[in-house]
Design brief:
The chain is mainly beta. It is built from 1 helix and 40 strands. Strands 4, 25, 28, 30, 31, 32, 33, 34 and 39 form a 9-stranded antiparallel beta sheet that branches. The longest helix is centred in the N-terminal third of the chain and has 17 residues. The chain is globular, with a radius of gyration of 24 Å. Bound molecules: 2-acetamido-2-deoxy-beta-D-glucopyranose (2 copies). One 2-acetamido-2-deoxy-beta-D-glucopyranose binds next to loops. One 2-acetamido-2-deoxy-beta-D-glucopyranose (NAG) binds next to loops. Keywords: Glycosidase, Hydrolase, Signal. Belongs to the glycosyl hydrolase 43 family. One of its GO terms (molecular function) is hydrolase activity, hydrolyzing O-glycosyl compounds. It comes from Aureobasidium namibiae CBS 147.97.
């Protein structure tokens, strides 16, 4: 082969790769308050989860576009308050894990997570392997609100605050050494992400929920900082969504820079969108194109496929797959894995209120619309127990089995203080065939912000023929609850504990089924 033909073949491969483009959102899952960084050729992504447990999910990617769940930084919401356990009649909706930060520290080859809980205390967790076990390092009795951590050699800095931005310096044992206000803004800014790039210190901040600014200092981590716009009301490709904002920046091994931000796109929540950006000669970063999120950009690096978001989970154990989160801390004595697969949910609360029932297992809804189907062994349910599949948020509906009927309950609401306002009303019910042992419950949810916002429930006694139950439920699109609608799998008792169900499988499919 002559050199020229080798060259032709190579450039053909290169141009095929260059033609591969990604579309936003890169993953249509509710994963807000993004912190992202690179270690070698792997990218890591952390997000906030409020009162869902475990908290602060970790995703990994080889290309910034294809992401998969690998674990959580906060194994249990161990925040000195039984509200996180749904105990003592208390609940912690809209509390817990807000914007926080996960970074890798080369100095001791360890991953760290830091976040403020309930505007009071900042917690720190660590792990050698981000997909493995995380443990608590300590607590700082100050709130590092919306914080971003920077490891700078041996030094540890944390930028935080709302409008007045501070930088804390931590000791090697993660106690506070000092804290200094480095900037006071005339507009509301928050969501700090601190970076050191070419000996400049940067703190990226958002003006919620539309613009992104950047603070830059060439003097040191404590400033003085100058302030400039990074991107103003950038366009999103998702019809009806808000502007990409409060993002985190990361480079590729070959020196290209990307901004991973999120869009408000209720009822589904806040999803990640990715766009390239550049630095000018003075080291000021800005988004390359104002519509950088709206266009199909080339992949940052060669695409690296990950496990599909869709498919069947048969709960083979010994642990739940990392995309699952409980509504509040679970009672770990009330769930287990059946031999041969299946998640056994024993009733863990005596209540008529789904919002106060322990051990509701949640899964993000895949957008723009998707269908969840569970197969439920109901042969060991007790009288009055309710087990089923919910469309869960502060305004909710669910399909459930109760006393041999399949029921549709709707208009459950949380009110002031995020306490239960209504446990809902039963719209309709249907009889199960005699001696039904396994029931399939299905929920199709359209979370596209410009879509119907409808959730439609159906059920089957044979897993093949599904019957629609009741009328579609229209999801609420306000953002106050922050977390987007989720699929929720539950089993609670009305009076006495003792009954159980086995969730034999959960199937997630894109679109309708
Ligand atoms: C949507 O939820 C909010 C609380 O998050 C509530 O104030 C509002 O009334 C709800 N809207 C509808 C149409 O139910
Ligand atoms: C659901 O999403 C699919 C893409 O996965 C789309 O083709 C379809 O139009 C959507 N359906 C509705 C009802 O929005």
């Amino acid at each position: 082969m002559r050199f020229s033909s080798v060259f032709t073949a190579l450039s053909a491969v290169t141009s095929t790769l260059a033609q591969q483009t990604y579309i936003n959102p890169v993953l249509w899952y509710d994963l807000a308050d993004i912190d992202v960084f690179r270690k070698g050729n792997q990218y890591y992504y952390s997000a906030s989860t409020m009162s869902f447990s475990p908290g602060a999910p970790i995703l990994r990617s080889g290309d910034l576009v294809n992401w998969e769940f690998i674990g959580h930084s906060v194994p249990t919401l161990d925040f000195h308050d039984t509200a996180y356990d749904l105990a003592d009649g208390k609940q912690a909706y809209v509390r817990g894990i807000w914007a926080s930060s996960m970074q890798y520290r080369e100095y001791d080859d360890t991953f760290y997570w830091i976040g403020c809980v309930d505007f009071k205390t900042t917690y720190i967790y660590k792990a050698k392997d981000p997909a493995g076990d995380w443990s608590k390092v300590g607590e700082i009795g100050t709130c590092y609100y919306d914080c971003g951590m920077l490891f700078d050699g041996q030094n540890i800095y944390v930028a935080y605050g709302n409008t007045k931005i501070s930088v804390a310096q931590l000791n090697n044992d993660f106690t506070q050494k000092s804290t200094t206000q480095v900037y006071s803004s005339s507009i509301t800014i928050e969501g700090s992400h601190m970076k050191k790039i070419n000996n400049n210190y940067y703190i990226f901040v958002t003006q919620p929920a539309s613009n992104e600014y950047v603070l830059k200092s060439s003097s040191g981590p404590l400033g003085p900082y100058e302030f400039k716009i990074f991107t103003k009301a950038a366009a999103s490709s998702v019809q009806g969504s808000g502007n990409p904002h409060q993002g985190s920046v990361v480079d590729t091994p070959d020196g290209k820079w990307y901004y991973l931000a999120f869009i408000d796109a209720y009822p589904g929540g806040r999803m990640p969108v990715l766009a390239p950006f550049v630095f000018d000669a003075q080291g000021w970063p800005s988004l390359k194109q104002a519509n950088g999120f709206a266009i199909a950009n080339p992949y940052p690096v060669t695409p690296v496929p990950v496990k599909s978001t869709t498919g069947i989970d048969s709960f083979t154990g010994p642990k739940l797959s990392p995309q699952w989160e409980w509504n509040h801390n679970p009672d770990t004595t009330k769930y287990s894995f059946a031999s041969g697969g299946g998640l056994i949910l024993k009733t863990a609360s005596a209540t008529k209120d789904l919002y106060h029932a322990k051990n509701t297992l949640t899964h993000r809804i895949l957008g723009p619309n998707s269908t969840a189907t569970i197969a439920l062994d109901i042969s060991k349910m007790s009288s009055g127990d309710q087990a089923g599949l919910a469309l869960l948020s502060d305004n909710s509906a669910y399909i459930a089995i109760r006393n041999g009927l399949v029921i549709l309950q709707r208009d459950l609401t949380l009110g002031a203080g995020w306490d239960t306002l209504s446990t809902g009303r039963q719209e309709t019910s249907a009889s199960l065939p005699a001696n039904t042992k396994t029931v399939w419950l299905r929920l199709h949810a359209d979370i596209a912000p410009s879509g119907s916002h409808q959730g439609s429930f159906s059920w089957s006694a044979d897993g093949k023929t599904f019957k629609v139950l009741g009328t579609p439920y229209v999801m609420n699109t306000t953002y106050y609850f922050f977390i987007g609608y989720r699929f929720g799998i539950f089993n609670f008792a009305e009076s006495a504990l003792g009954g159980q169900v086995t969730v034999k499988s959960f199937e997630l499919a894109l679109g309708s089924k």
